Amino acid sequence: MPQAERAAGGALEAKSGGFAADSLERRIQGLCHGWSLEVTPKTAIHLAKAEPPPAAGSQVYITHLPGQPFEDVIATAAWLRARGYDPVPHLVARSVPDRATLIDWLDHLTQEAGVDAVLLIAGSMATHLGPYPDTLTLLEDVCLAEHGIRRLAVAGHPEGHPHADDEALDQALATKLAHAERDGLEIWLVTQFLFDAQPLLGWRQRLVAQGLEIPIRVGLPGPASLATLWKYAMSCGIGASVAALQKQGSRMLQLARPKPPSRQVLGLARHATSNLALHFYPFGGIDKTLAWSQALEAGRFRLDARQHEIIVDD
How far apart are CA 121 and CA 262, in angstroms? Predict the structure, then answer.
């Protein structure tokens, strides 16, 4: 399999699950093949009782929160690798205190935890601790490939960014792609979580029109109550997706009921291509997110009569 397809989740290689080859169910199952998951060093323990990952290993992204020792990230990556997962630690540019520490972190990740991929992000801190205010500054200063990194994920912003316009974001992405090509790195995008598929699809079309074709992992919230999703949406300020969530806000009786991202998955599946895959933020809990995503990947689901809801089989 080409590396780019592996990074995006290999969406075209799903099992048939008894569905017709071109059915919407088949597209959903294909889109969910090779999904990835976000954990913190504290929540990763929930994977101890999970079903074993597939032979290729499921990508698990490890957050590095402000003030958290990076040693916790390294230890979590090693723990996940030992259980057959493909750990992808966050590397937060603004949290790096100095160049020597960055190189030390990379060496420990690659040599002790067997890591060869990172998600490079700027971080949400108002000020940077060291010499790297953004990801491009870090990439220009340190060649990740020289320290054992072979694969690079970077952030995608389908609904824009509060501190940069679309033109600046596109130029930054083109520069990151150039750095990746220069250093021989496989590269893909991971987006913030979405409540509506349309911003992602329009953004992807715009990138393709500019010749920026790159695998995308589409961020989705795991099954969670509307109250929980609203809290995270407001804290992140994710534009059009907040408007989509507002349309559901009047359904007060469902505020406490975990709701999976069926609407987003259906919207994406109707336009799925080989370079789209799913990345889950398990706000409603890792166990619920795993159960739902694994059911879709295995084909243990059906659609309602209007094809508006995904119903997971018990």
Answer: 28
